């Protein structure tokens, strides 16, 4: 273990630069560890990811640039391969919103005066509206985008000029490993190709691309859990292959840099390992300058990263990417984490939680599969039967919701798309989650196709989730999922890796708004925010109770999925939820309490005999209503001692 070092810290200056940079502040420090040469630490930041990209561009291209690359700031996939392409072309990588060009980005394009702009990604990533806005500034433009992130990655490489023969392979399903690889590829005048990492071998199109580019040296970023051993073995038939993987995302960045940089490197870039936006544009500049990029925790530098650039390399300048909200002043002082201690603490905590779950579960009614993933901190992960494929009840609707939003993002569907029922896609997505409406769920499945969804889930690494239909070449007459898959999807959603920012926000808002709170949420303290999707279904073996949630706990968010079978109950799920919460946050006495009447009438409204049928009563405003089911936008309720249907527009959430 590298010992924690003490530093003399000297604040030198701070500058506020132009409104167009969103009040960018550049801070310069001298960090002087006892056992290493003095390193100057500076920071490139802006008020948001777009302004930070501008700050990086100004730092690297003070006198303008011949070309500029422009990628979506709402998703990471396209920009991962674009960073080394921009470095090779000698221009910056800027970010844009999908549907509008930020003012700061527009101003930077005017300042740069490039002869051309390369738009990265298809219309679903960077819209025609953005294209038109850029064209008014720089008429000479081209778009490089494919049908998905993998084709876009290959097309970017095909569009590049002569490369060195160095290729970096990274999974396209996550960003951390590819961030360091993007900077390394740029520094070596190579490229990054994204692959479906869990496949047994690389796609034929990737093999053809590597052969066409006369690649001689391949570096795989990440361990076998993210890029399979089968892909590695297959690549060895093309060129020399080196796997650069670490125990976590921080260790992988160090391994990539060890495989790519020698003692000649005098500058290093550091970005958060918990987000992608700042590092995307920083990777392009790092590649241009021949500098490595390391990922860091928000409050301290991983020991291995510090040891690599402070001891193995001759780094005398460290540039932080992003503000103190992502890399705080302890990082600016190059304070290390003591990662060996972190690993031991993580392992002990995971073992303790697993022991608690194994003690609790046999005492509950039913049999339960459980997976927990901590979303920050030590990223503790625990699973009990988490890979078991079982009946997911209505919790599988998170996958249907994701499938619809992904198609909206791709331009294949729209929020306003009309369904055969006459309702819009937006209306049915909400009803499907808000009251777990099965009619809207069926509408969405018919719109997208079970087999299409199954193929999507399999290709994205969800190893146990499918609807009735063909899945991985076999027909199934029933649906299944796993708690591992559910928590993985919610983890990607929380981290902004599943959908773009606006669709991620929308999906989380629907999960927060759903009204059924009697299971997992009832195991949390009052006031703790959660975004969840429960399920309940009676089958021949007994009651199925499920729930998948993001829990926004005081000491850090986590995802929790529970699938209970053989007579599971709401109190069983609440007990599991309470145990997990207390493990991360400490014991508490009072749990949240929710009445069965989840909604209240927003105004005086009619109670009807059927969905849209004749009125049977007038219900006054403020009456508590128990929603039992939905028929799209008509909710079946018990209210004021009567049973019938009310329009969803006449009701509002009680909690």
Automatic annotation (TrEMBL):
Protein's UniProt keywords contain Nucleus: no
Alphabetized GO MF terms: beta-lactamase activity
Gene3D superfamilies: 3.40.50.12090, DD-peptidase/beta-lactamase superfamily, SH3 Domains
Domain of life: Bacteria
Gene Ontology terms: biological process: beta-lactam antibiotic catabolic process
Keywords (A to Z) from UniProt: Signal
Signal peptide, first to last residue: 1-31
InterPro entries (UniProt xref): Bact_Sporulation_Assoc (IPR051922), Beta-lactam/transpept-like (IPR012338), Beta-lactam_cat (IPR045155), Cell_wall-bd_2 (IPR007253)
Phylogenetic lineage: Bacteria, Bacillati, Actinomycetota, Actinomycetes, Micrococcales
PANTHER family, sorted: GERMINATION-SPECIFIC N-ACETYLMURAMOYL-L-ALANINE AMIDASE, N-ACETYLMURAMOYL-L-ALANINE AMIDASE-RELATED
Protein name: Putative cell wall-binding protein
Beta-lactamase class A catalytic domain boundaries: 371-563
